[in-house]
Design goal:
single chain; alpha+beta; Jelly Rolls; nine-stranded antiparallel β-sheet; 7 helices; about 25% helix; globular; binds 2-oxoglutaric acid
Amino acid sequence: MDRVGLKATFEEQGYVVVPSFADGPTVEVLRAIAEEHLITELAPIEYEVDVQYPGAPVDDNAPGANTARRLLQACSRHSAFRDWASSDSVKAVLSPLLGSDALELSQCHHNCVMTKQPGFSSATLWHQDNRYWSFDEQNLVSLWLALTDENRANGCLRVIPGSHRLTLDPGRFDATLFLRPDLPENKQLLEQSVLVTLTAGDALLFHSKLFHAAGRNRTEDTKLSLVFTYHAASNRPIDATRSAKFPGIAL
Ligand SMILES: O=C(O)CCC(=O)C(=O)O
């Protein structure tokens, strides 16, 4: 797909997949670092028990309590992650989607290796990422690079195409701003959801308002993805919010 097609698809669907965005050797290097950090439990880490999503171990004493969910602060944990995330090829694919040549990578959101491990991984309910993000404009794009294949069995993402354009009443959400699955109008919306299956090296670009969810990993192998969030440099985080905790990295 050329750049014009990519932008048109992104604007229409709120997401677009770029197959083989990272080449095999690059994926191997990034995956090896992620695996080493996972095995050595290199902090900062968010554990499944911290998120308490459906299927997560209930407390620190439960079996699987040391199951990692996210290896946090990817840009600080290895220069290979930072260099890749701020590379020219990443900037080139994002600039048309964000309508700017001056971009920033947020160190406050995603900026992580997302893991789904066998045994104790949890499911993520339907949400929009920007529910807790504070910027002048709700216009950010996340880049999800598959470091392993992603499919239904190992808990790949599901998305609702076009849902980045929806504005839903507050009553459609629970207290933590996940879509309430019990409501008929939400059930109807979720019928439109599609699986996003990825091969290692594929990139998923998705809008911060796109509704998405994911299942548990029911395979024997760990799923790994590298996830970063970007915005136009002119779209500023609101002072004193979580989105302004760390400065952006200029691209
Ligand atoms: O892999 C998952 O469970 C989805 C994670 C997710 O949607 C998020 O962190 O916003």
